[in-house]
Amino acid sequence: MAEEFIDRRRILTDLSEKAIDRVFRASERVIREYWARYKNRDAATYGDYLDRKGALLSSVRNIIYTNKSTALYDIYVPSRFLPNDRTADQIINMLCENIDDPKKRPTHALTIVGGAGAGKSFFMRHAFFHIQNIGSGRIPIFLEPRSFNRMILANLETRIFDDFTSLGTSITREQITVGLRSGLFVLLLDGIDELKIGIQSHYLNEISDFIKKFPLCPILISSRPSQKFHSLPTNEIVRIGRMTEIAATDLIGRLEYADNTKNAFIKLLRGGLYNTHYDYVSIPLLCTIMLLTFSDSGRISSKRHEFYEDAFLALWSKHDIRKEGFEREKFSGLQKKDFLRLVAAFAVSSYGRGDYEMRDSDLRRHFEQAISLSGITCQEDEFIQDLTISTCLAIEDGPYIRFCHRSFQEYFAALFLSETDDAMVGDLIEEFSDRIEMDNVLQLALSLNPEKVEKNWVLNKVDSVASSIRVMGDDIGNYVNMAVGQQSSNNELAIVMQKIRILYQFSPNLSALLAAYDAAKHMGVRVGQITNRSPRGRLFEKDRSNFRNLSAHLAKKYRNQSSALQTLLRWSAEASKEDRRNQEEIS
């Protein structure tokens, strides 16, 4: 083992030396003089970092592997990327091309976007190792922005320094600056969307400054989709694609799970399940959850919130989800219904503060809040044991505990919203609505309890949009300005409209509308010249119709509901009167 460790460290040090040799030839005189003095020292430093970081990134956990880790490449299924259906390695190779003139680089920054469970983090880990193997002469630096949430604000150079030192690798700030200036490094930022709302703008500005300050240093970012990335300079946005049937089958086959269950599920996939449930089995996380719930109940869920509900039931009832049978021990003594209420309250508390990783003090704060919110009592340590051991809903990761996947935290937070008193839920939804672009809490809450979300939040928002549409009449030009936020008096309304578009998955979405608006500006077409008959005008007309139709649908839905309730009350009152008359006649 010691010899293997030495060989691995030597290989990584040699790799670092070759990377330094590459940039040495193309660097300015000051940097060449620096490398002439410190090449051996720096190669050893970077080799040490690659070894230590690689040991952390080479093993993973997910909903199947919660109590133990598994090797990344035992379960990694390569993703494809849109547009142009590129492979993962093509994306990485393009980013790392050895073009030392920043003006000739195809892109300085690449943002990989995808929804929850699309495989972004697995791809980013693969990128860390692939960059070392392709002979690009670059050294990958891997950061998880969620760790920034517990640090004071700083620039990215400081965050890189912190990452080296946290691994026990000795490094100076000069070494980092020289590596960035010379293009020695590739910066990987996995999960920008996991930054707390209050510090997102700071780090997006830092990324923008970083791209300008270090044009030779490629940067690879992963995130859930957001319009915020469009403002980054020289940034290309690439979408992670859905799994093919072959990839989904490959993923299931790789998981450490009962063979008879895997074989039965793969047979279903090949027999038509992939086509009938494409929106679910083409996403790695949901495909894995479907295997889990299929093994427990044999049921194939048709709605997304049902996946998480069924997953909870499976995790609650099984002792080891890689085996069959065995009932779990419950440390807290809580019944399933009470435990679920407590988890939902714990999730909404931690989600509300943006705590995705929690130390002991965070756990205590959110547990105490959950007790108050739910009215359910138990011992904190027993609840945490049930969360991490009995149900595997959460994972211990060093000194931190986090949900086995962030989407589970969102589901339980949505569950809490769906059962919250009407007097409070509107304020909570309004608070959480600012995150709607990057998470699924409100979408899940709408699926769980449409009436709760629509009557306490959506109706007022849609009515305000519909009212503004009526005031401006049929002039599509005025609507265009309102829809894309170009009227200073209507900026808040434009934000509301975007939230509704996301919640109800309107087509066209804001990206399509902004693209049409920018194209018109580029061609010198004034907004007032856009007509309902032009292709761009028809796009905005469809958007306007979406809001009108939703407003009319909700008004009719709840007007009919109110009328039906009034009729029910009248019938009940009439029946009571009839009963009293009958009683009087009998007596």
From TrEMBL:
It comes from Limobrevibacterium gyesilva. Residues 108-226 form the NACHT domain. This is NACHT domain-containing protein.
